[in-house]
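Supplementary notes for students who missed Thursday's class. We covered one full example, reproduced here. Read the sequence, then the structure, then the short commentary at the end.
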Amino acid sequence: MPFGTGVLVDELDFSDDKLLQGRTFSYSDTQRYHVGANYLQLAINKPKTRVATNQYGGQMDYLDGDKGSENPHINYEPSSIDGLKEAPKSGKDYTPHVEGQVMRKKISLLK
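Structure (token representation):
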């Protein structure tokens, strides 16, 4: 069962164990890799308050169709849910001015 060591009950804190601190630092990434982006929907990891992760559906979505916890601000497009849209480009594109020669040459370390 994936249980995040960084998810603590109030009044508890980490020990000085370096291994535990290292695992706590990387555990969220490990859960996203093994369980999927919706690992916070597992009962053991689910917070008691509303979560706004901007994630919807996808692999390992445990709450498919649960309208009470959906965030309307989807962070990808195209989306059938009408989430965020990329703003249109404005202004001119920036093209840097560079002078010189481009060449491939062996660099001599000794003079």
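Commentary. The two ends are 63 Å apart (CA to CA). The chain has a mean pLDDT of 70. If anything here is unclear, bring it to office hours.
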